Amino acid sequence: YEDRLKALRAQLQAETKVMHRHDQPAWARLASTYHLRLAELSGNPILHRYLVEIVSRCSLIVALHQPPGNAACEHDEHEGIVERIARGDADGAVALMDQHLRDLERHLMLDKPAPRKDLAHLLGLG
């Protein structure tokens, strides 16, 4: 458990670095990976597999429907969730994750047509 928590904190450090470089594709990949690492902490392979499928779909939805200049996930929210997990505050971690996901959904512009974007760019391939 401690080694996975340490990996999660290293993940947050990597997020911070790419965020300050304004490397949106790299940051989007790291933010997605963060959610998968959290699932690994649960030790539940069914949950992890489910999130692998959901996170990949959600990443594309966010990339297509996120207004310009908005971060899909707030880095400080990620840190807050990890700190609550490290303290053993499961209720606090769950509450913060729930709010985090609701904020993400609220910031998406699903009711307007998605601007035309190049998929290779969104995936950091072009």
Describe it.
- This protein is an all-alpha fold.
- The chain has helices at residues 2-20, 24-42, 45-65, 75-86, 90-107, 119-122.
- The mean pLDDT is 80.
Question: What's the arrangement of secondary structure elements?
Answer:
Blueprint: H1 2-20, H2 24-42, H3 45-65, H4 75-86, H5 90-107, H6 119-122
Helix pairs in contact: 1-2, 1-4, 2-3, 4-5
Shape: globular
How is the quaternary structure best described? single chain
The helix fraction, in percent, is: over 70%
Outline the low-pLDDT stretches. Answer: none
Q: Can you give the mean pLDDT? A: 80
How much of the sequence lies in strands comes to: under 5%
- Helix/sheet category: mainly alpha
Number of strands: 0
- The span between the termini is 37 Å
**What is the chain-wise order of helices and strands?**
HHHHHH
Mind telling me the C-alpha Rg? 15 Å
Biggest beta-sheet profile: none
